[in-house]
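User: quick one, fold this
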Amino acid sequence: MTDYGHDLAFGTFITPQNADPHAPVRLAQLSEQAGLDLVTFQDHPYQPTFHDTWTLLSWVAARTERVTLSGNVLNLPLRQPAVLARAAASLDLLSGGRVALGIGAGAFWDAVAAMGGPRLTPGESVQALEEAMEIVRGIWDARERRPLRLDGEHHRVAGAKRGPAPAHDIPIWVGAYKPRMLRLVGRAADGWLPSLAYLKDGDLRRGNAIVDEAAQEAGRDPSEVRRLLNVGGAVLPSRQGFLQGPVEQWVDELTALAIEDGVGTFVLASDEPRLIEVFGEEIAPAVREQVARERSASGTVPAAARRGARALALRRPGIDYAAVPASLAATAVEPGDREYPAVRHNYLRAGAPGIVLRPRTTEQVVEALAYARAQDVPLGVRSGGHGISGRSTNDGGVVIDLGGLDRIEVVDGATRRVRLGAGATWGAVAEALRPHGWAISSGDYGGVGVGGLATTGGVGLLGRVFGLTIDHVVAAEVVTADGRVLHASADENPDLFWGLRGAGANLGIVTWVEVEAMPLGDVVYSRMTLDATDTAGLLERWGAAVERAPRELTSFLILSPGRRGDGPVAQLMTVHASDDTDAAVRELERLADAGPVLAHEAYLVPYTGVVQRVPKDHAGGGDPAVRSGLVEHLDPDTSRAFEKLAASGVPYFLQVRATGGAAHDVAPDATAYPHRHQNFVLTAMAVSQDRMDAVWDAEMAPHTDGLYLSFDTDTRPERLVDAFGEPGLARLRRLKREYDPQNVFRSNFPIPPADD
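Assistant:
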């Protein structure tokens, strides 16, 4: 018996005939309605009575909502691998991660040659397929910055740009029958996809043995290769042959294929609507139930819990991998897994966690936290992974990645109340709110996660008109250190609600926040470059112009120190939160007076043009050291100090963000973020924390009044007072004693619980 423990999946194998162009589309929709998981189509590009399969897949993706879609299998000799990779990634992004890539080495060589494709021998076709798989995966690896190069015998790329990354880890399933192809499947593919009609007795067993041996030689667990099978038959009143009989016969025979031959996905080759309905509504549920019973009796280990020898060797000490909760095991990522590079880092900081858990519900967050607490390793919690401080990853620890909690929903249209999952990104939020004519002030980059920003502050490009992001949070759900799920608002757990808005990372794992959005139409977005030779003078003039400007204007300044003979320049990112272009031009002209203008462009755009939706994959970048400080004015002394800081050669990135305006309307003690009189946040980033601390403390510290938590990596205990103020810190310590007395959440400016 061979059971790899895969979760069972069921789908259809539909003929892409075009006599009635929408007939295969209707069958795909019927498959989804019947509860099936997968819809596949043949691919014969040389067949004029068939649709082009890729075009059909794209159309069906737009007409369905849930099913995974794949060719069965795509004719690789007529589909250039790099282009196919981009097409698959694009469709995966558009469909929300519903693409699988079923490919084959080719067949019907006369027809292939007639279409201009190569005529390959069996050995050549296997080599061509292996080269193609390397190219496809190389294109998908958007984290790798080097261009893709492969000089194969049959496929070549010479410096191809990588990307886009798909929405999920697209599996590659290979149609294979002969030993050489099966060995390729074992060492490199994610699934083996034959048709039962082409197999003789014992071929499944013999094929599994070849695949398993090749997988083990490659350091993989054989369960990493899903076994799929195209099957055909008929539901009949009595038994008349294999899969030719009543539903009960189908259930018994498919169960035997799952338990004895390891088949995890059954694909029904049929264009008969009634058979599709019975397969999805009656046969598939019964097979799942019967297989579950037999696995329970035999103690079968789920495929998600198995790892190859190479992966096992990469496991980190202090983590009980066998104890990962069953609800999280299927999506957990360990070192050695193919998805690991996509989840190990955050935006700026490199990481090497021992395991990344990816819950999709609040209940799974509770399980993930309980598991993490039982391990003797660091804990990180990630919403979007963009945080400059880099605390959402670690080395050798557990990371709870909330990216699956990304739902965005309108709770109350009259009050513009919106519930945002902690793992959603602000670019996605802006996109979802645009049809309503609403917006939420949310930093300056769409890849930032909701959870981090909405619990720390939120100094954004709408900040002077709308205030901080936390100023519009009206409720939250949080998992506390002891596993309780609490709701916090002005009326429910109000003290916790106060602390979550500014110090949320210390008090629990926020799973969602409710925010009151603001009405907003188009805005004027300006990017201006100024000569910053007179750095102090430019800062002083720009700061004064911002303070005099109406609240509709918010401006950020990035200062680039002079390098290699070039003088310093300042880049302004400015939003005028109105479609009044005349008023915007007047204010932008005042900003331009701060220094000689080198370049300027401005646009009338929706807020989605400012905070755009971007991929969340992060490649890290080392271990940056960051300091921040708030100031009331960019007066001459402060501006000269910032100029000296830039000229020191220590920081490679410096920024000033305008805050104030509406943020000043909130009392300092209304939230855990107390900084309600300052107008600017100053930030500098360097390679060395010691050097950064030394020059910042010497030049900037005497002029600053507080710090911005998300932009600082100096975690000396005395900095807590700078972050929260004396009264606020004392209150937070009492909250810490109540909600996290054991200091479980200590990776982000840890607040010590009150002693008494």
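User: anything notable?
Assistant: The chain has a mean pLDDT of 95.
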